[in-house]
Amino acid sequence: MTYSMTAFASSEIEIEGLTLHCELRSVNHRYCDISLKIPERFRFIEASTRQLISKQLKRGKIECGFSYKKHQQVDAKLDINMDAVQTLLNTTKEIEQLMHSATSFTALDVLAFPGIQTEQSSNKADLEKSLQAILQTALDGLIAARLREGEQLQRLITERCEKMQTFVEQAKSRMPVVLDNLKHKLKNQIAELVSEPNHDRIEQEMVILAQKLDVEEELDRLETHVAEVLHILQKKEPVGRRLDFLMQEMNREANTLGSKSADKEMTTVAIELKVLIEQMREQVQNIE
User: Which pTM does this prediction carry?
Assistant: First the structure.
């Protein structure tokens, strides 16, 4: 199975007058880079959240965010830290005595001050269980989305590999014709320049030149690399790095094929191969 690194998923649950919400986003990255955005109230789950994500996602830049919303209740009563209110008022009074003109403030201003309103205490164990539940649900959705995208990438890469196989076969069938044409061309050119040519010597030089221009090894390696790409795509593990390495190797062979080309048709094959490899390389960048 092939997984993409780009996906989004979310989940939420209601517990103790709260709606808990979790969002996961992932994009391509060389390693597994986890970024968390967690309210202070839920900070105690940071370590377990990182552990749960890294256990199931091996590559990608992962952004995980938690949020919550209180349910509005008609008979709800604000929980006020009266000690904090008294301290705030006493401190304010002392400061006002040092000011030339004091500015009055309302009770709403006091309520907005940090630490005045207190959160209702929740059962920490139950809260952690609920947070991990919505995280796992979001992870399941993210993995499913990555798989769907990965399957599409796998189809595209497979199609391009099959096209590459066709071009490699075309080049192999063309190679004997290319070498034969080259021999006749060189033999005629040398015959024009030499009144009494040494045909044995000419034949030896042509064999050496033909060996330099022979691309059979490059074509064989390209076939091997294509077969390996198709094999790796079937593995049930992260394969992005291995595929990226194979793209580099195939590009090297295609470049050599192009540099050795002594025929218009072979040059066209080399160009088509490089185009296909570059298309696959871009797709591979997003595979886990």
Answer: 0.71
